[in-house]
Amino acid sequence: MQRALVVGPGSMVGSRLSEHLRARGWQVIGAGRSGDCEVPLDLGCDSLRTEFPGVEADVLFHCAAAFGDDSAQGAWLNDRVNVLGAHQVVALARAAGCRQVVYAGSVSSARREAAAFASSYGASKARAEGVLAWGLAQSGQTFVSLRFAQLYDERGDCIRHQRWFGRIVSYARSGRVLRLPPGDAPRNFVHVRDAVTAMVLASDVGAEGVLHVCHPHSESYLSLARHAYEVFGQGGEVQIAHEKTAFWPAYFPPASPELATLGLTFIPMFDGLRAIRDGGHAARFEVFDVT
Hints:
By secondary structure, the chain is an alpha/beta fold. The longest helix is centred in the first third of the chain and has 25 residues, at 72-96. The model has no long low-confidence stretch (mean pLDDT 95). The strands form 3 sheets. The chain has a 7-stranded parallel beta sheet with strand order 3-2-1-4-5-6-10, with helices on both faces. The chain has a two-stranded parallel sheet with strand order 7-9. The termini are far apart. The protein contains 8 helices and 11 strands.
């Protein structure tokens, strides 16, 4: 039986990954701040822990992160947890004898040549990749970062970070009038099931480097809203509120060609929305406003 160390097992990605691994016959060991984790681990602590007696695993899956904003405090939090915390992950992987670390990265770390990072979060995740790649290379362990596009799920866990996605589903399922800001800037949504499948497939083949995991079909928030209203069929409509600030453009790089060799396929958005409608958790997409 293969053993997996999952850092951040309480996160949306970490919890779904743990379920997926157990279904495939893996033993899963959780590492994090929660009291039910087998390995206590705080990526934001003041000192580096290097001793983890009795902890052994084949692969470490790193799913934990801070999601600070672009304020000075938010940027500091992102660097403290995501960047400095990466040193703690390296120490844990070394102590546990893992052959590989698979990182849940973010497409917000991607940027066009000579462009600045779009957010402190994306910048911190990119710096974390550098720490992980360098540190693991020193100890002969392999590293791969899967830079995911915007992740969503059918259980409503995604609304914490995908606020507009959550609002669109909320209004569509309740048949309300949604006043959407103008702009057709593309967005890219990947279902969390596809994300965790990609992480395990990358582990299976020993993938290395940085891979961009983007859905082959991008959506604007307007097209997403139209799909959602069609799927839920509860009435209501989408109106463009021209007085609102337009959606800002975001950069989504092409999906890495290595994904095809992994055999990864993506859930179509219509199927993802139907899973929300029919999965018993649609009420978790509560009506709320987004500024």
